[in-house]
TrEMBL record:
In the N-terminal section; belongs to the PRA-CH family. In the C-terminal section; belongs to the PRA-PH family. It comes from Geotoga petraea. This is Histidine biosynthesis bifunctional protein HisIE. Its main location: cytoplasm. Its EC number is 3.5.4.19, 3.6.1.31.
């Protein structure tokens, strides 16, 4: 726990050019607003328990509610792990937003549909790699992957070569995407046959970055 007297010195003021971003939430943990404080604004907040913000547009310190009467009283304050942001819990009097809403984050944004979401993680390749490994170690007569391993190196390498060519000769964008997915699958089969994990490929690529 940090003593309030030590907080001013613990914050990395230089990182924010003399300002620290503050996330303000109410006692029910709903986020109300995002603002900024300089050292003086924070010091006045700690002493009075009334929230003081630093206005970047007006270049001055202002007390929340000084005109509207929608005051914020400090109940709890937490410093983040990098010492460059604060989370403040307040008792909110009236709406927090100058537009009259409870929170400044009241306008909901519609996200893309789940089926249109792009997954940039490695997880889908890991899942496929694990399935291929399982079919290699525990053959299933109904599995195409198990069939490839049964046929051996020549068949596995030939199929990968065929799929690579299919990518190059694909007649349109949709077909090239389809054939690329096939090629990646067969590449993972080649790697599995050779006892190479895809993580080793990623490690090699990472090592090539300057």
């Amino acid at each position: 726990m940090i003593l309030s007297n030590d907080l001013l010195n613990k914050i990395d003021w230089e990182k924010g050019n003399g300002l620290v971003p503050i996330v303000v939430q109410d006692e029910e943990k709903e986020v109300l607003t995002l603002g900024y404080m300089n050292k003086e604004a924070l010091e006045r907040t700690l002493k009075s328990r009334n929230l003081f913000y630093y206005s970047r547009t007006k270049n001055r310190i202002r007390m929340k509610g000084e005109i509207s009467g929608n005051f914020q009283f400090l109940k709890d304050i937490r410093l983040d792990c990098d010492n460059d942001a604060l989370l403040l819990t307040v008792e909110q009097i009236g709406p927090a937003c100058h537009l009259g809403t409870k929170s400044c984050f009241s306008e909901k944004v519609e996200l893309p549909k789940e089926e249109d979401r792009i997954d940039y993680s490695y997880s889908i390749l890991q899942e496929l790699e694990n399935v291929i490994k399982s079919r290699k170690e525990n053959p299933d007569e109904k599995s195409y992957t198990s069939f490839l391993f049964k046929e051996g190196k020549e068949k596995i390498f030939k199929k990968f070569g065929e799929e690579a060519v299919e990518v190059l000769v694909a007649e349109n964008r949709e077909r090239r995407i389809y054939e690329t997915a096939d090629m990646i699958y067969h590449l993972l089969v080649v790697l599995s046959y050779e006892g190479i994990s895809f993580s080793e490929i990623l490690k090699e690529l990472k090592g090539r970055r300057k």
